[in-house]
Structure formats: structure tokens, C-alpha cells
Design a protein that fits this description.
The chain folds into 2 domains: 94 residues, Phosphorylase Kinase, domain 1 (2-Layer Sandwich), CATH 3.30.200.20; 206 residues, Aminoglycoside phosphotransferase (APH), C-terminal lobe (Aminoglycoside 3'-phosphotransferase, Chain: A, domain 2), CATH 3.90.1200. Helices cover 43% and strands 14% of the residues. It has 10 helices and 9 strands. Helix 3 runs parallel beside helix 7. The mean pLDDT is 94.
Length: 321
């Protein structure tokens, strides 16, 4: 992700003194993602990732970090956070809330194999199943749900060309027709893109970046994941990769009939959410160093492709169990 906040060696060393991690050896900024400031940190006791939270509500941090700890303790390959001397996962560095987590090894894959798609599908289903027992802080409604879509669209009015404005208005009208209150729901990752998973070969070694985790429909989380892991460059769905991912998911948690019926709508909803967030980042950028903005056209293409593909999408189940 982009590095927004520069820190100095002395202040980092002082921060680490409050954690049972030894003394600082080295640190370096991480240039992936767009939400927070991340650094790799090496100490005499091990390897860690330091996050300074740029626009996460501080009140939500205990939820995120306790969730990550809970999942790591329930066989989900997550980066367990480190408690400070005060017993808390959240500290303060450079005037910002910060957390230190164990570093996971492996690398993200931008062109996933069938086996890697299957691994992420299985892991997502296990995450949903494990998260059903997580009770810390109660439910956390999705902050990027339909209400946010409408607010973002209003903010973007006047910044879009006529074609994009028409696509956006039509999709918002379409999504307003559906209220999937009866879909199975619980904890979702909500951002399980390829760059938020780590692999060693075809073995999944890490699921990272839980800072959009919330309570929502599990099928929506699956749709977010499929849209990123199984889309061609022109937005079309790669049905073979999608089938591998969904079949592995269903090997752990079979989908219900109502979920299968809702599938095309939620694939479009997932594409809409990320198109809107990338448009917002493009037209309302934040000041920062080493920053980059992800291309909103990626999700515009995915959204328009899913609209065309609707008749084919239900056929996915024939290959997925």
C-alpha cells in the first residue's frame, strides 16, 4: 500500500519498547494497498508488520484486532496481533493508532492457478464458519453497504462523464430492487483480493488486512472474492477459476437455494461497491507520500461484464456442486 506517514527510527524503537518483541533491527515501508501505512519491522525476537491507521475509526480497531486474533487461534492463517505491556493490541505511534502483528511468509499471486483459487475458496468458507463463534463487540454493520453506495454516488455527481453516470444510476436502481435479509450472514472479510492472500506455491500461508471486516451476507463476501480472483482483464468472468473457487467453498459450506438465486445480483453489488470506492479515491485523493490510486476502470469493466453475463451465472452451479 501507499506509505502515508513517515516514521523515524528512534520513535519506532521507543514504540517497540512497549512490546515483548526485543529491540529494533530494521524497518521498511510496504507499497501495497491504499488504506493504511504499513512497515515491515525486524527485531531481535522476530519479524512483524506495523500498521498505522490512516482512516480507520479508532473505535473499530479492537473489533478488527480481536477478530484477527480469534481467527488465528481457530486455524485460519491470519497474522496474530501482539499485545503491548498494557495488555492491549492497539498502541499509538506518531500521533496515530497503531498495531503490531506477526509477519506471515509467502507472496501474493496476481495470476492464480486453479489450485490457488480452490485454496482461497476453502479458506473463505472456513473463515465464515469460524467467525460464527466470534462475539467480541457484537455485530458490526457493513460501512460500505447500500447506504454508503448512495452517499458516494451523490458525492461523485458532477465528476463522472455521461456514460459512467448512466451506468451508476441504473445499477443503483437495480440494486434497490433487492433486499436479501434472509441470506445466511455473519463475519465477512469484505476485501479478500489477491493482494490480501499469501501463498507458498499452491499452499495458502496467510489471509491479511481485515480492516473492512464486518457483519454481512456470506454470499456477498464470496462474490467480492470471485470478482477479483476470477476476472479476465476485460472484466469477463473466468468460469473455470470461478468454479474451482466456489466448489471448494461449497465443500465446507454448501450454499442454499436462495443464495444460488441471489448470486448474479451480489456479483454486481460487489463490483459496484469497489467501482464506487475507487472512483471516490480517484476524484477525492488524500495527501501522502509514495501514494497510488487503484484504477476504477477495473471494476467498471467487471460490473458491465456481470450485467451481460447474468443468464450464464446460474450455470456456475453445475460445475460447483
Amino acid at each position: 500500500m501507499s506509505v502515508f506517514t513517515r516514521i523515524e527510527e528512534a520513535e519506532l524503537a521507543a514504540f517497540l519498547a512497549g512490546y515483548p518483541v526485543g529491540t529494533l533491527r530494521s524497518f521498511a515501508g510496504i507499497q501495497s494497498g491504499i488504506e493504511n501505512t504499513n512497515y515491515f519491522v525486524s527485531t531481535t525476537e522476530g519479524e512483524y508488520v506495523l500498521t498505522l491507521f490512516e482512516r480507520v475509526d479508532p473505535a473499530d480497531l479492537p473489533f478488527f484486532l480481536n477478530l484477527t486474533a480469534f481467527l488465528a487461534e481457530h486455524a485460519i492463517p491470519c497474522a496474530h496481533p501482539v499485545r503491548g505491556a498494557d495488555g492491549e493490541y492497539v498502541g499509538v505511534l506518531h500521533g496515530k493508532k497503531a498495531a503490531l502483528v506477526m509477519r506471515l511468509y509467502g507472496r501474493s499471486v496476481m495470476t492464480p492457478s486453479m489450485a490457488q483459487c480452490a485454496a482461497i475458496g476453502e479458506a473463505l468458507a472456513r473463515l465464515h464458519a469460524a467467525g460464527a463463534a466470534f462475539t467480541f463487540g457484537g455485530e458490526r454493520p457493513n460501512p460500505r453497504g447500500p447506504r454508503w453506495w448512495r452517499a458516494a454516488a451523490e458525492r461523485l455527481a458532477g465528476h463522472l462523464d455521461a456514460e459512467d453516470a448512466d451506468i451508476l444510476a441504473e445499477e443503483l436502481r437495480f440494486q434497490a430492487l433487492y433486499r436479501f435479509a434472509d441470506l445466511p450472514r455473519g463475519i465477512i472479510h469484505a476485501d479478500l483480493f489477491r493482494d490480501n492472500a499469501l501463498f507458498d506455491g499452491d499452499r495458502l500461508t496467510g489471509v491479511i488486512d481485515f480492516y473492512y471486516a464486518c457483519t454481512d451476507t456470506w454470499l456477498y463476501d464470496l462474490a467480492i472474492t470471485v470478482n477479483d480472483w476470477a476476472s479476465e482483464d476485460d472484466g469477463r468472468l473466468d468460469f473455470r477459476r470461478a468454479e474451482a473457487l466456489v466448489a471448494a467453498y461449497q465443500g465446507v459450506r454448501p450454499l442454499t437455494g436462495i443464495e444460488r438465486g441471489a448470486w448474479p445480483v451480489l456479483l454486481r453489488a460487489a463490483a459496484l461497491r469497489f467501482w464506487l470506492s475507487r472512483l471516490t479515491d480517484l476524484h477525492f485523493p488524500r495527501a501522502g507520500e509514495l501514494t497510488h490510486t487503484k484504477d476504477p476502470l477495473v471494476f467498471r469493466r467487471i460490473l458491465t461484464a456481470r450485467r451481460r453475463e447474468t443468464p450464464r451465472l446460474r450455470g456456475l452451479w453445475r460445475g460447483a456442486g
